[in-house]
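testing teh design pipeline on a random one, pls ignore if ur not involved
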């Protein structure tokens, strides 16, 4: 029978899985497949698993239960194996790498920091701070029919937005990464200007949260911070 694989742990992990049922329409108990110094946490499945809300929450619940007992290599939602033999083979093949990563993640959790900038507030700041943008805007509003004015203003504002957001994003990263063992910056999407993942040691958790809170208060108008964590260290499993 096929297996759904949640995570990899070391053999000394307490693996408190009592009462946990797995993903799928006919959930089976979450259990362990061991190979040498490693264990894979799995459950039996008889269907293709899709990211339904219930199954995503179960996947996350298993990860959080495991995190409470020690370092864990969380797999992304949807990872499956054909059978126990395939799982055992994968554990043995990459044992050294898995063990090294588990040691690197020991005593750590992942935190996500997203920053969103209010576009209207940013536009007001640009028009306030840039004489050239302010002049173009005033000419358009006063009825100047030069067809090049809107294009020139749009290009100027777009360049200013990119420059300011890149500078702000870099400054936020520089302020937070000293509290982390590792970090990764992903491409921001939508209205986000920052999408930052940090690997933070447990003994620096409060220090990090305090610094993030202070930064959010000091950063100024028009910036919203969103902090998530502690989370399984998905971003730091290679």
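output:
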């Amino acid at each position: 029978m096929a297996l759904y694989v949640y995570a990899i742990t070391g053999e000394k992990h307490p693996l408190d899985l009592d009462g946990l049922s797995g993903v799928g329409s006919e959930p089976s108990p979450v259990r362990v497949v061991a190979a040498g110094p490693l264990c894979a946490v799995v459950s039996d499945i008889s269907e293709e698993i899709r990211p339904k809300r219930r199954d995503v929450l179960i996947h996350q619940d298993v990860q959080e239960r495991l995190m409470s007992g020690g370092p864990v290599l969380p797999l992304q939602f949807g990872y499956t194996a054909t059978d126990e033999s395939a799982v055992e083979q994968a554990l043995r093949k990459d044992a050294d790498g898995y063990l090294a990563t588990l040691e690197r993640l020991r005593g750590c959790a992942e935190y996500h920091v997203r920053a969103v900038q209010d576009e209207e507030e940013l536009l007001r700041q640009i028009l306030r701070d840039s004489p050239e943008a302010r002049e173009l805007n005033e000419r358009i509003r006063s009825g100047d029919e030069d067809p090049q004015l809107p294009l020139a203003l749009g290009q100027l504002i777009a360049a200013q937005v990119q420059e300011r957001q890149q500078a702000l994003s870099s400054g936020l990263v520089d302020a937070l990464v000293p509290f982390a063992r590792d970090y990764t910056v992903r491409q921001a999407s939508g209205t986000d200007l920052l999408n930052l993942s940090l690997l933070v040691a447990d003994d620096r958790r409060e220090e990090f949260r305090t610094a993030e809170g202070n930064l959010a208060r000091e950063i100024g108008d028009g910036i919203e911070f969103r902090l998530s964590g502690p989370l399984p260290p998905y971003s730091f499993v290679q």
